């Protein structure tokens, strides 16, 4: 049996294996960083859209609280005060829109149901709300 003692290429093979392991580890870290960044961005967009939809809810509540000072019937007042279509916020890609569930026919309804639709950078959130009115 012949024993080979020529080990001149072993250092090169070992070095190439270590470099390959480091590259695999670094690529796994980069993949994880990229996925985490995408997830954080998506969550920020959804949170922003939810906050904008909530802002639409607050806007309707303020408008209805000011209704007592108006001489108009409720349906006319809301048509004048609530904007049609999406309302842009600032110069960015953020909007909200108020959508009433049904057209208000009665001048003194007991409650009003509506949706606030918030959009931010591609994310879309709908919040449904209902306001009960106590007429005095």
From TrEMBL:
Taxonomic superkingdom: Bacteria
Transmembrane segments: 12-30
Alphabetical keyword list: Membrane, Transmembrane, Transmembrane helix
Protein name, as recorded: Type 4 fimbrial biogenesis protein PilX N-terminal domain-containing protein
């Amino acid at each position: 049996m012949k024993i080979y003692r020529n080990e001149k290429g072993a250092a090169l093979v070992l070095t190439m294996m270590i470099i390959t392991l480091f590259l695999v580890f670094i690529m796994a870290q980069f993949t994880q960083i990229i996925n985490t960044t995408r997830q954080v961005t998506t969550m920020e967009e959804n949170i922003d859209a939810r906050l904008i939809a909530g802002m639409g809810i607050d806007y309707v509540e303020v408008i209805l609280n000011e209704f007592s000072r108006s001489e108009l019937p409720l349906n006319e007042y809301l048509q004048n005060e609530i904007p049609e279509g999406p309302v842009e916020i600032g110069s960015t890609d953020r909007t909200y829109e108020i959508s009433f569930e049904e057209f208000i026919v009665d001048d003194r309804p007991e409650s009003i149901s509506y949706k606030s639709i918030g959009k931010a950078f591609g994310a879309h959130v709908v919040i449904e709300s209902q306001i009960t009115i106590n007429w005095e």
